[in-house]
Amino acid sequence: MLKFCIFTKFINIKPHIIMSAQLKIFCKNINRYIPFDGGETLSEILKRVCDEISFTPICARVNNKTEDLQYAVFAPKQVEYLPVTTASGMRVYTRSLCMMLYRALVECYPGTRLNICHSISKGYYCRLDNIAVTDEVVENLREAMRRLVERDVAFERKERLTADVKEMFRKEGLDDKVQLLDTIHDLYTVYYRLDGVIDTYYGPLAPSTGFLRCFDLRRYHEGFLLLGCDHSCPDVPAQPITQEKMYNAFTEYVAFNHIIGIRNVGELNKSTEENRSGELINVAEALHDKKIASIADEIKRRYEAGGARVVMIAGPSSSGKTTFTKRLAIYLLTNLLKPKMISLDNYFVDRVNTPRDESGDYDYESLYALDLQQFNSDLRRLIAGEEVELPTYSFEHGHRLYKGERLQLDDRSILLIEGIHGLNPELTSEIEDGMKYRIYVSALTTLAIDDHNWVPTTDNRLLRRIIRDHKYRGTSAMETIRRWPSVRRGEERWIFPYQENADSTFNSSLIFELGVMREYGEGLLKNFPRDTPEYAEAYRLMKFLSYFAPIPGRDIPPTSLLREFLGGSSFHY
What we know:
The chain has helices at 2-10, 15-20, 42-46, 87-108, 135-151, 162-171, 175-184, 244-260, 265-273, 277-304, 321-334, 372-383, 457-472, 477-494, 513-525, 535-545, 563-566, and strands at 24-27, 32-35, 40-41, 59-62, 65-67, 72-73, 78-82, 114-120, 123-128, 155-161, 188-194, 197-199, 216-220, 223-227, 310-314, 338-343, 388-394, 399-407, 413-418, 436-442, 448-450, 453-454, 504-507. By secondary structure, the chain is an alpha+beta fold. The chain folds into three domains: 22-82, Beta-grasp domain (Ubiquitin-like (UB roll)), CATH 3.10.20.30; 88-227, Threonyl-trna Synthetase, Chain A, domain 2 (Threonyl-tRNA Synthetase, Chain A, domain 2, 2-Layer Sandwich); 244-566, P-loop containing nucleotide triphosphate hydrolases (Rossmann fold, 3-Layer(aba) Sandwich), CATH 3.40.50.300. The strands form seven sheets. A five-stranded mixed β-sheet has the order 2-1-7-4-5. Helix 4 (87-108) packs across helix 5 (135-151) and helix 15 (513-525) runs antiparallel to helix 16 (535-545). It is globular, with a radius of gyration of 27 Å. The relative contact order is 0.11.
């Protein structure tokens, strides 16, 4: 006791203060403090307040950072328990389903390699090596997963030296994970254990398999779809939709990845370490050139057959529609056509007449934010060969102006119209289908992190937008992240339902781009204010970027679609 008193005197802390200190978390869900013992997990703390929370949490946000419920608390924190219906909760649910699927595969077909390739048709496309996917195989996996749910097996979070984790994965034949860990160079690695099977997932998992009652497996081409719960109704599995054109676009680029030997982030990082990034950039850009040239050739063929007078170019935010349109115009010129561009933005209705969203804000992503009648009238007249005075929308004043800009088409002219609603039939309802050629542009990321973790297309686009908005639109990363859920809701309503209307699909992703964007993205995300809800997303994106070895952008050509976001483009925007 004497030594303790001397020590506390030295550091100027009174013994009774140490003995009486009580740890508390602030729970945002119930807006009050909860006492706890140091080392308790979020699950254990939850038991004391679960009757006061109206949902069953699947994860939590701790100091605005998403954690699993196994997270042990040793100091005062702010905690917000999250349901599966949140974006973070849905990601936790999906990752946990993937590990449960992998455990089922080890039980049913040991030695078989699982590839979770990409999201499509409201699910996640999976393929198996070594065995053919039959109805029987799918049913066996589904039943094994259901047994895991009924047993309510815990997802055990572990952390060990990376060298030890690599050795464990090497013994399990998970060489893709070993290669990735070799290139990340972290000292320690977090992994999960489920019923004796180990795996890595790049984010937290659910507490146990009992949380995952809502899922399904469906045969799909050479593989099957893993379907989680429906985003709008989490008590039922998501229902697959037809997306054959998207599947073909994914398949084409996956085949390209295999040919160049870059199927996952570990292989990409290795190529960077071997100074092959310049070659990779050249090949990826050449693939873009080839695809755009092919689309231009098809447009010319239809034009000469009497159709394709109007080319509609649509796609979600940050898909690269603008640069694609400019590059397409060049290839159409080489086909002896005269491309003319019309901006849909100039056909906005007056601001006072703009529809409003659920929050009461102006909904500029609504189809009905456009003057459809005037737009179709001008299109009809242009196709008929008449001269038309085009409007200019004043965003400053909130209404259209006419400044004497006139357009008339001749017998080699073709209209290029870029905008998010290009594939919606209602946009051009008064124009014959034979006069239209529709193109869907999106960054369909086909690169995997490893066999069980894909690179989300949405994250790719969000990073593009964060960089572009900061560089060219004076918008902070925090504001872009804050607006992103609204953007995504608009895409789900106004863009994605019409993807399959496209005559051509252009994949704007570039296999090297996340390595290039790492420097740009980290610079905008690393000093993010931690006392904001958006910090959770910023932290997640930073963690995501950390898997990619930095790639210098000096070899990216000025015509590259990526220049639209990074700067240095030879095009004017």
